[in-house]
């Protein structure tokens, strides 16, 4: 899954499949999904859930956030030392659960889209 090692690249399973197909013409999409699932479970890759589309995968398992451009759909990495979870008083917000994680993602308009609007 060397495809995923490219920096700042967050492909969908189908995009990974398209790349792999060139080198391994016999590979099936089900194999790609299965491998990605395994890698995500073992923590080698991050699966980025995407409520309005296909999930994306990230070859960098270090803790970071993602921002999605609402216009062109591109996904960029957001690196910060700030542990955003620490700034949220979960006990105050969620009752009846022991919250183990909060999945945070950002959305906005990227610079390129901002420049291209006429
Ligand atoms: Zn954009
Ligand atoms: Zn990322």
Q: Order of strands side by side in the largest beta sheet?
A: 4-3-5
Bound molecules: zinc ion
Report the helical percentage.
25-40%
Number of strands: 5
The major β-sheet equals: 3 strands, mixed
Backbone structural class: alpha+beta
Low-confidence stretches: none
Distance between the termini: 40 Å
**Which strand-content bin applies to the residues?**
15-25%
State the assembly state of the protein chains. single chain
Can you count the helices?
A: 4
Mean pLDDT: 87
Radius of gyration: 17 Å
Shape by Cα distribution: globular
**Secondary-structure element series:** HHEEEEHEH
Note down, in words, how this protein is organized.
- Helix content is 29%, strand content 15%.
- With 118 residues, it is of the alpha+beta class.
- The strands form two sheets. The protein has a three-stranded mixed β-sheet, with no helix packed on it. The chain has a two-stranded antiparallel sheet with strand order 1-2.
- A hairpin with a 7-residue loop joins strand 1 and strand 2.
- It binds zinc ion (ZN) (2 copies).
- One zinc ion binds next to loops.
């Amino acid at each position: 899954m060397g495809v995923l090692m490219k920096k700042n690249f967050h492909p969908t399973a189908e995009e990974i499949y398209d790349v792999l197909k060139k080198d391994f013409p016999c590979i099936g999409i089900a194999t790609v999904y299965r491998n990605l699932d395994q890698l995500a479970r073992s923590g080698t890759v991050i699966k980025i859930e995407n409520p309005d589309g296909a999930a994306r995968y990230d070859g960098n398992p270090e803790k970071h956030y993602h921002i999605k451009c609402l216009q062109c759909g591109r996904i960029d990495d957001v690196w910060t030392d700030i542990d955003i979870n620490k700034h949220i008083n979960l006990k105050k917000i969620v009752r009846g659960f022991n919250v183990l994680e909060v999945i945070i993602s950002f959305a906005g308009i990227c610079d390129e889209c901002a420049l291209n609007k006429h």
